[in-house]
Amino acid sequence: MVRLRPMGTWLKRVLFFVGRVIASFLRNRGILLAGGVGYNALLSLVPFLTLALATLSLFFDEESILAILRRELGSLLPLQADTLLQTAETFLQNQAATRLVSVAALLFFSSIAFRMLEEAVAAIFHTSNQGARRSFWVSALLPYLFILTLMIGLFFTTLLTYGLDALGDRSLSVFGTELDLADSVRAILRLTGFLGLVLLFAGIYRVLPVVRIPMRRALLGGLCAAVLWRLVGMILAYYFTNLSMVSVLYGSLATVVVMLLLLETAFIILLLGVQIIAELEACEAAGIPWYDKPPDPTRGTGTPPGSPGRPSD
Length: 313
Hints:
This protein is mostly helical and about 325 residues long. It contains 11 helices and 2 strands; from the N terminus they run αααααααββαααα. It has one domain (about 25-300). Helices cover about 75% and strands about 5% of the residues. A two-stranded antiparallel sheet has the order 1-2. Helix 2 crosses helix 11 (about 255-285), helix 7 (about 135-170) packs antiparallel against helix 8 and helix 9 runs antiparallel to helix 11 (about 255-285).
């Protein structure tokens, strides 16, 4: 009984914290923000895939790049990955794709989702009410830095895939027993994709907020968001494949509707991670433990979460 009491207290604190996060998320209109970011992400997805395919084709063969993009998209939009990639391929086959105006348009539309996501993060942290703002040029260049980072990540993922595929064709002899390396290679690729997702979320949590976020907190938020992303993605993929009647209800519009729903769900998870970090920052700024309720920053009581005057970690 003595050992169960601290566990019960800890569980009660965790549940209270989760309830507080959800209440703050709904108060900040997090679902509405996620819907807006998801819509803009749908506008940005095909231009970004087109840029990625065109850039990586300079270094690798197109089939390998398509296989990698299909695998990465499968965790987010499992039923629409082929449609999106086919659209990107069709655009690249058009002569207009090589024009400077087309490249500029692709870059602009690829950055729309990042700009909207930055505004959503600012809304959750209430930085717009505190007057904390980035300079115009930093906000203008930040989406393109994220695009460049994603391109570099895809480049090294493709490079790693080439190396692991070469190993997968071989076998390893251990104490006279031949072991096939193909299963190990697939496991490494899955782990690499998951770690890349964690680092992507951690980078978003670290860079997008105007306030300073400790790296350990960003990594923790990235890990939680990546785990939820994978779990919810598998559940939704099973639902839309076996149980959903959306294709019957929406007909030819079903693909767009499903993509919007999946993207909105994905950004709800992403913004929930932002809300968790905002709550932790608010508790630290108020000098109270994480399981206690901090002052409401919208009412001007106490130190607002992530205040610019807060001592840095």
